[in-house]
Amino acid sequence: MPPDPTEPSPTGPARPNRPMRDTSAALLTLSGLAAAFGVASCCGLPFLLATAGFSTAWLGGVALLAAPHRPLLLTLAALCLIAGAGLLWRRQPAGICATGSLCSKPLTRGLTTIGLIAGLVLLVIGYLYA
């Protein structure tokens, strides 16, 4: 008798019915945050950190490396942050998630949102104070 195609194969990997995880929004957010940090490291970020009383001597090396690539970093940061926000908006919270769909835990969703906001602030600072 041939095997039933609806039954799981005894030799194949067993896959539990868990929601799929999507880390692309978090990775795009981190990429955008890093690029925005590079853009803001030359002018705006040292000014704001010095105003708050923090030393900014360590930003000199980052600013020296990022300054020639400022337009590219500005564009890359904006694109990564927009794509990360779009992917975060598209995902459903884990509480109402159906099996097999893309879900996000509240902690991951909150940290990604904080990263998007921080990246946007750095991007605006880097654009305005250049």
UniProtKB/TrEMBL annotation:
Q: Which domain of life is it from?
A: Bacteria
Is Lipoprotein given among the entry's keywords? no
Concerning its family, UniProt says: Belongs to the MerT family.
Which UniProt key words apply to this protein? Cell inner membrane, Cell membrane, Membrane, Mercuric resistance, Mercury, Metal-binding, Transmembrane, Transmembrane helix, Transport
Task: Give the span(s) annotated as Disordered.
Answer: 1-20
Location in the cell reads:
Cell inner membrane
Membrane topology category? Multi-pass membrane protein
**A Gene Ontology molecular-function term?**
metal ion binding
Q: Which InterPro entries does the UniProt entry name for this protein? A: Transprt_MerT (IPR003457)
Q: Which residues cross the membrane?
A: 25-52, 72-89, 110-129
| Any GO CC annotation of this UniProt entry | plasma membrane
Role, per record = Involved in mercury resistance. Probably transfers a mercuric ion from the periplasmic Hg(2+)-binding protein MerP to the cytoplasmic mercuric reductase MerA.
**Name of the protein this chain belongs to:** Mercuric transport protein MerT
Q: Where is the composition biased (Pro residues)?
A: 1-13
